[in-house]
Amino acid sequence: MKHFLTWVYALRSCIFVSAALLSLIVFLCGRKKHGKVFRAVTLGLVGINILFIAVGSYNAFLRPHYQQQPITKSDLETLCTKLVDGSYDLEQFLPNCENEAPDLWGYETNWEDEKGMVDYQSKIVSLQNSWISRYLIDQSSSVCLYFYEFDTEKRAKAFYQEDIAEYWNSSIVFVGKKRSNDRIKILQKGYLEIQNEQYHTYLTPIEYQADYFNPERGDHIRKQMRIVIQYDRYVAFFIESSNTNKLSLPDLMKNQLLFDPSYDPKER
Question: I need a labelling partner for 252 at 20 to 30 A (CA). Which of 24, 98, 176, 213 fits?
Fold first, then answer.
């Protein structure tokens, strides 16, 4: 049943168009034979489906590709400080969640020959962050940790600087538009960057893209954000990619749940 509902959800634009056309045909064919109630109901169905089509079209074609991220500078500083002083053990990242799949983004392949890298760890967790995704349709968010250890702090800093340069010089996920062309928009939507003697870090806004009227992939929402932190000889990536309306990473970070042994998403 859940698989069927997921399939229906992915084809919702086609369903809304078909329902609107069918309701309109029924209205045109029966408006003279039936009374006001019939006309009101059929026109109402036409209007409701057109409204759904309009909302989906707005999300896909007019909604900004960068959305405000809710994490504050203080939240980011707290995460960095706890990593630096050892309060957070990276091996305890979301400890009550299973590691779903290795190397989701190809980070291990990209950097396995990196000079001076002495250790690499990753953990990828799938979270269902709403009752709809939990009970009705197969939608989830992938929250990922990638952790690199280098032989010297200098090499860790070089790795971090190369990554931040790559972020600005590469294209926005799912869209293909270079981020450096949207620098002002990115800064306005919550991009944060902190540099001090203890750590370097940057936090991206939420990147958004939606498909609608897509016969090949169906109708989907895609969101992504990431946090990258360099401290001492280490570089940590926290990344979330989601096909739901709400990301989990901001709340997990703000509520200090990323390394909380008592946190279990299944018990929410």
Answer: 176
Amino acid symbol at 195: Q
Q: How far is CA 34 from the centre of its chain?
A: 49
What distance in Å separates the CA atoms of residue 252 and residue 16, rounded to the nearest whole number? Answer: 35
Burial class (CB in 10 A: 0-12, 13-18, 19+), 61: exposed
Whether 74 and 33 map to the same domain: the answer is no
Residues in the chain: 268
CA separation for the pair 98, 143 (Å, rounded): 11
Asked if 246 contacts 129 with a C-beta cutoff of 8 angstroms, the reply is yes
- Cα separation of 199 and 191, whole Å? 17
Structural domain range at position 30: 2-61
So what's the pLDDT on residue 87? 94
pTM of the complete model: 0.81
d(CA 78, CA 72): 10
Say whether both 128 and 212 belong to one domain. Answer: yes
Using pLDDT thresholds of 50, 70 and 90, give the confidence band for residue 26: confident
Same domain? For 145 and 50 the reply is: no
